[in-house]
Structure formats: C-alpha cells, structure tokens
Design goal:
The complex is a heterodimer. By secondary structure, chain A is α+β, with helices and mostly antiparallel strands. Helices cover 47% and strands 12% of the residues of chain A. Chain A is built from 17 helices and 13 strands. The longest helix of chain A is centred in the N-terminal third of the chain and has 23 residues. Chain A is globular. The N and C termini of chain A lie far apart (62 Å). Chain B is α/β, with parallel strands linked by helices. Chain B contains 8 helices and 19 strands. Chain B is elongated and about 65 Å long. The two termini of chain B are 41 Å apart. The chains are: A alpha+beta, B alpha/beta. At the A-B interface, helix 5, helix 15 and helix 17 of A face loops of B. Chain A: Keywords: Heme, Iron, Metal-binding, Monooxygenase, Oxidoreductase. Chain A: It holds the Pfam family p450. Chain A: InterPro entries: Cyt_P450, Cyt_P450_CS, Cyt_P450_sf.
C-alpha cells in the first residue's frame, strides 16, 4: 500500500479491473481514461504498469531488448509462476531462442508461400457465400466468421478431420489464460486437459499432411532449421493462435460493415478495398486487445521508471483508437490509411500469421461483395467475453442479394 | 547437401566505375558513420547509427546490410556488432587490393559524420539451433561469425572457432576473442601453414553444425573436408557480392500505377508508398521498414531497387515484386500492379 501511495505522487493510479465483465463488454471508456491519465498508468488491482497511448504501446512492442516476452505475455510472470503449458517458442520467447522458430514460420506463412492457396480459398469463399445466401437470416459468427476459417485453415495446416471442434475452445482458453484466473479461466479449466491433449496429439508429424503448414514445419526440422523437439511446439502455435483470432477479425469486419452500410458500398464499387477494409476493422475492433511484457531492466517510459522484472500491460485496442495518432479514431472508415495500427502487434513478435488472416478476409469479403448488396443487422450483437480477445458470440444478419 | 548462401561480407568493387559523390536520397534509410577505427592491417571497423538516434531494424547473426556509399556504389557487409544495442550497427571492411570503388572509398574517403544509404538487413546465413558448433573463419570472414559465437556462448552451446588469415597482423577482432581461451584457435598462414581442417574437425558426427565464411579456396576445402558429414551439417557464406544491375539512383523516377491508370513522380525525399498514397491510391503497409511484408506489390515493368529485409537474392533478381515502403527504382520508370 505504501508503495502504491508513494507512486501516486508522480504516476497516475487506476483501480479498475480491465478483465471485469463490464470492461470486457464495453472497453472503450476505460481505454480512454487510461490514455488520458498519462503515458504510463499504474493498475493497482494487479500491480502492473499499463500503456494505452499509441506512442508508448508502439515503442514497447518494438523494443524487445527492454520489454521481454520470455517471462510470459500474460499477467503471469514465468520467473515466479509455472505456465499452464510449456511456453510458446514464438510468442513467449526472446532472441536468440525466438530466431529459428520465427524464421521458419515466417517463410511458411509469408505472402509468397500463400500464393498457392489463393485460388482455393477464393473458390471456398464463393461456395460458402452461395450456401448462406439461401438463408433468409443467419448468425454471421457461426455461419461466416467461424465457418470460413474452419473450412480453409485446418486443411491448410494439414490437420485430420476428426476433432477439429477442439480448436476454437482451446484457442479461446489460451487467450483467456493471458489474463487473471477469473471465472473465464476457472470455468473452462475442467475441459482444458481434453482440448490440450487433442491439440498436442495433432502436432505430431504422423498426424499432419506432408504439404500443409504443419508438414512444412517438420520438413524444416529435417533440414536442421529447427530441432525435432521444437517442431511440434511450432505447430502448436499455429493451432493456438491461428483460428480464434481470425474468427474474431472476420466477425469484426462483418460487424463493421453491417453498422456502416456506406462503407460496404465502397467495397462493392472497388473490391480491391477489401484488404484495407480488413486492416481498418482490425484497427477499429482490435480482436487482440492486450498483451503483457516484462521489463528486463529499469526502463524509463514517459517520465516513469518501470522497475526491472515488473509486468507491463499494453492496450493495443486503446492505441488503435488513440486520438493522438488517429483522426476520428472511433469511426470505421475505408477512406483512412490504417497502416501502422498495432492490432497485429509490431516488431519482431508481430503476428506471423497476419498474411494468412488477410488472405482469408480478402477471399470472404470479395465473395460477399460480389453477391451481397447489403448486410443488415437484424438484432443486437452479443459479445463473448475473453481476457484477451474482443470477440462476438452472435451477429444476427440478413444478407440482401445483389 | 551443404547449404550454401551467396553474397556478403566484402564486396569486390570490380567492374563498376565510381560516380561523383552526390549524396543519398533522403527517403532511403540513411545511417551515419558514428565511429571509424582500424582493427587490423587493411581492416577498418565502422559504427553506424541513425542521425535521429532512433532504433535500427532488428537483425539476427549472419545478417548483412546493403550500404549505398556516397559515390553511388552499393556494397554488402556482414553485421558484426551486438543486437542488444538497437541503436548501433557494426561492420568491418577489408581493403580489397583489386577493388576500385567500395572498400577503397570506405578506407580512404568515408569519415565519421558521413551518411550512407542502408538496405536490409537480410540473412541468408542464419544460425540454426544446435548443441554444438564448429566455426571456421578465413580473414575478414570472421565478421558474420562474431555474433554467432556470442549467441552460441549465450545459449551454452559447445563451440570452437578455427580462425585463419595471412598474417597475425591482418586478423581483426583477436582481442575480442581472447576471453574465450582454448575454444579459439588462431592460425595465421605465415607461421602455421594452411589450416589442417580434417584434424580440427575430427571424425564426422551428428549433432554438430559447421559454419564457415572466408575466401573461395577455404570454402572449397571445408566443403571437401565435410563431404562425409551428415546432411545439413555445413553452412557457408561466400564473399562474392552480386553486382547490382545498375547503380542506385537519387534522381526522381516515374511510377505508373497500371490498374489505377495514373502515374506518379517519386522524388528523392519520399518513399514509393508515400507517393502512391498521395495520389489517392490504396496501398496497405505496416512496419515501414521492409520487414513485415504487408506492402508487397507486383512489379509489371522497370527494375526495382530492393531495400527490404525479406527477398532472397534470386527473388530480388526476378524483379517481379517489391516492398514499396522502402524499395525504390533503378530505372527511370517502374510499372506497378496498383
């Protein structure tokens, strides 16, 4: 307590719990308050330092030397606490151990490596849109935002068909586990062993098709670019971070268009705008809201020294709507250039699957733009609370055929 | 098959005439020589930093950068500093007796405070994970191995270095290697003769990666000595730098955006990305450092001047795509699929 009071002299203090249901339901007011309080805010509830302005969030993301990931990118500090599963070789690692897994995965998921999937994914998106156009009303989350990634991504990884229903709950739990052990974590805990056992089993070489992302990871291990011990953990990263994030990214862009019909017309007029539209939706909604870092040394941020070993909570979502960086930040606007948003992170941990997500979105939006004149919201969207993700459970839609 | 990476370390400088110093286009990533000092006979070390003091792009051991010298020549040098210092690059340059442009310019003309253009860093010689490494350096080929050694040491790997050169006085960074004691074997040719590779390497075995950088005869000898070692053991990097098809330019150039039916002029002070956006044409980007790959754009005509950290040499030469946040043009006109 004395420490808190002492800090209060120079450092703004906020008592809110950012992981409480009311803030997960509507995070914008807390984000604005944290941004306006200062470049660094002390969150008394969790004894962590929060960054909510674009400038500081961006600076912390790129500065891997002072803000490490290896002690975990959630609230839990791996220096003192045992992680719930073996740490990720990508997300929860620092150079030099981070180098080889990152290099291998970046090549497998890079834009040039994805060209071979483009035609198939565009055809799959056309087929999906054709199917759902037959329904008068639908829920955009299961019918589109979940259906499309689940249709194309597990195939691209080379996963077997059986058990794919484990992917979404496993990923949802992994992103909850970056937060505190609130009911979002404890309620799911009894099911985690079952989900995790299935996911871990899928990472083995004999479960993966040879030409998918998974098989290519194992082939890189055969070439010595990774060790054979690292290969299954790199596959696990794909399965953890590759599904829920894109689902909620797609849900966000559908939500944005359903509530901004004028912007949808711009994509219909110019399908090339689909790529920018997705990134603008990622900026606007920030499907990944937050990540933590740990200070490797006493680090000065905006006049405050963050002591070595302390956790820093970066509000990506708040940075993506910081009026110091963006004009009319709360507006979803295809006329703006969303480049530089931190929805995929920035620096050497920047989302290695971002090109996969963009290609999925481009395929789905292109198919929708061709066939759908208007996306009409027919009910209140329902949020799904998650300690890290900005997620939708339901998005009632009527698609008006072109 | 041993994996062989081409390019880097020291450019020959042969075959390209120097152009008069004319400064470096401002939109090109620019670094300043913050220090220059002699490290051995014929070897100078340069420290490079951004004039603004901002971070430099991240890199990994084995990476090289393209330096666009004030005389218009582009040369490639391995990074041999400390990646935990995000504000400083270190390179070392050997004076090439046959070279005409690059190394002579760095040795004789370049001074602290001078600015040079920067491309990359790129890495075609990455350090793969292993419990044991054998490093073999010939002369200035020590440069890419220095950060690898630092890293191997940090990870607690079992490693040794065999360092050959003509004479002791020509072999740079011996002082920095001294603290490693018996792990490092320094063997100048005038006192020790040719490197006895087979004896030093020992019997072929698994679980070892051999990294070698140096002149062509050394690489050939190491390849021969490793013939019976398991596949993927040997990683090499050659000195020979691929000559760019035309010197880097600092005049304005035209970019035709074919799909949009418009043409923009890119002046030296702006990026292609900026010029495209100014013309109201959509182009997504993210890192603006040529590392994330978001702004990849198909090239329909003209020769790009690649400055990114992504493309391999053969992909650069293909010239069919570019990253418009950093890359520019070698020709008067580029045609892009935008």
């Amino acid at each position: 307590m004395t420490e808190t009071l002492h800090r209060a002299g120079t450092l703004p203090v906020n008592d809110a719990d950012p992981f409480a249901p009311e803030h997960l339901e509507t995070p914008e007011p807390l984000h604005a308050a944290l941004r306006d309080a200062g470049p660094v805010v002390y969150l008394a509830r969790y004894d962590v330092y929060a960054l909510a302005r674009y400038e500081q969030v961006h600076a912390a993301l790129v500065n891997w030397q002072d803000f490490q990931s290896g002690a975990g990118v959630g609230l839990s500090n791996f220096r003192y606490e045992k992680p719930w599963r073996p740490p990720s070789l990508l997300l929860e690692a620092d150079p030099p151990r981070h180098d080889a897994p990152r290099r291998v995965l970046a090549a497998i998921l890079g834009p040039r490596a994805l060209r071979r999937l483009r035609q198939t994914w565009f055809a799959e998106a056309e087929a999906l849109v054709e199917r759902v156009l037959g329904e008068r009303e639908l829920d955009g989350v299961p019918a589109l935002a979940e259906a499309f990634p689940l249709r194309v991504f597990p195939d691209a990884v080379g996963l077997q068909r059986e058990g794919r229903q484990n992917l979404l709950p496993y990923g949802n739990f992994a992103f909850n586990a970056f937060g505190p052990a609130n009911s979002l974590v404890t309620d799911a805990a009894p099911h985690v062993p079952e989900w995790a056992a299935w996911v871990d089993a899928q990472c083995a070489r004999d479960r993966l098709g040879p030409d998918g992302f998974g098989g290519r990871i194992w082939a890189a291990a055969d070439r010595g670019e990774l060790t054979h011990e690292q290969a299954p953990l790199v596959v696990r990263s794909l399965l953890t971070a590759g599904v829920d994030t894109t689902v909620h990214g797609l849900a966000a862009v559908l939500h944005a268009f359903a509530t901004h019909p004028g912007q949808w017309q711009r994509v219909r007029d110019n399908p090339a705008a689909a790529r920018v539209a997705f990134d603008e939706a990622v900026r606007w909604a920030s499907p990944v809201q937050t990540f933590f870092r740990t200070a490797t040394t006493d680090t000065l941020v905006g006049g405050t020294t963050i002591p070595e070993g302390r956790k820093i909570l970066m509000f990506l979502a708040a940075a993506n709507r910081d009026p110091r960086r963006w004009e009319r930040p709360d507006t979803f606007d295809l006329g703006r250039d969303p480049s530089g948003h931190v929805g995929f992170g920035m620096g050497l941990h920047q989302c290695v699957g971002q090109h996969v997500a963009r290609l999925e979105a481009e395929a789905l939006l292109t198919a929708l733009a061709r066939r759908v004149r208007r996306l009409e919201l027919t009910g209140e969207p329902v949020r799904q609370h998650n300690n890290t993700l900005r997620a939708l459970r339901s998005l009632p839609l009527r698609l008006h055929p072109a | 098959m041993p994996s062989t990476a081409s390019a880097t370390s020291v450019a020959s400088g042969a075959g390209i005439e120097s152009r008069p110093a004319s400064g470096i286009a401002a939109a090109v990533e620019t670094v300043e020589v913050s220090a220059k000092r002699r490290r051995a006979d014929g070897v100078v070390e340069l420290l490079l930093s951004r004039p603004s003091g901002a971070r430099l792009p991240d890199w990994t051991p084995g990476s090289h950068v393209d330096l666009v010298l004030p005389n218009g020549l582009t040369r490639q040098y391995s990074l041999c500093g400390d990646r935990w210092d995000a504000h400083t690059y270190r390179i070392a340059v050997l004076r090439e007796p046959d070279g005409r442009g690059g190394s002579a310019f760095v040795h004789d003309e370049l001074r602290p405070g001078d600015r040079v253009g920067l491309g990359g860093p790129r890495n075609h010689f990455p350090l793969v994970p292993s419990e044991a490494y054998l490093f073999i350096a010939g002369g200035i080929g020590i440069t890419p191995l220095l950060p690898m050694i630092h890293q191997a040491d940090l990870l607690g790997a079992d490693w040794r270095l065999l360092y050959g050169g003509r004479r002791l006085a020509t072999m740079a960074f011996r002082d920095e290697l001294e603290r490693h004691g018996e792990r490092v074997h320094v063997a100048p040719e005038d006192t020790h003769g040719l490197l006895d590779l087979r004896a030093w390497l020992g019997e072929p075995r698994t679980g070892v990666r051999v990294y070698c950088c140096g002149p062509a005869p050394l690489l050939t000898a190491v390849e021969r000595a490793c013939r019976h070692w398991p596949a993927h053991t040997l990683h090499t990097e050659r000195f020979t730098a691929t000559e760019p098809p035309a010197p880097a330019r600092d005049e304005p150039f035209e970019v035709e955006l074919r799909r949009s039916g418009t043409t923009v002029t890119v002046t030296p002070d702006v990026s292609v990305l900026h010029a495209v956006r100014q013309a109201g044409v959509e182009a997504l980007s993210s890192c603006r450092q040529g590392t994330c790959g978001t702004c990849e754009t198909t090239v329909l005509g003209g020769l790009p001047d690649h400055r990114d950290a992504i493309l391999a040499d053969h992909e650069r030469e293909a010239g069919d795509c570019m990253f418009i946040c950093v890359s520019r043009s070698r020709t008067d006109r580029l045609v892009l699929d935008l």
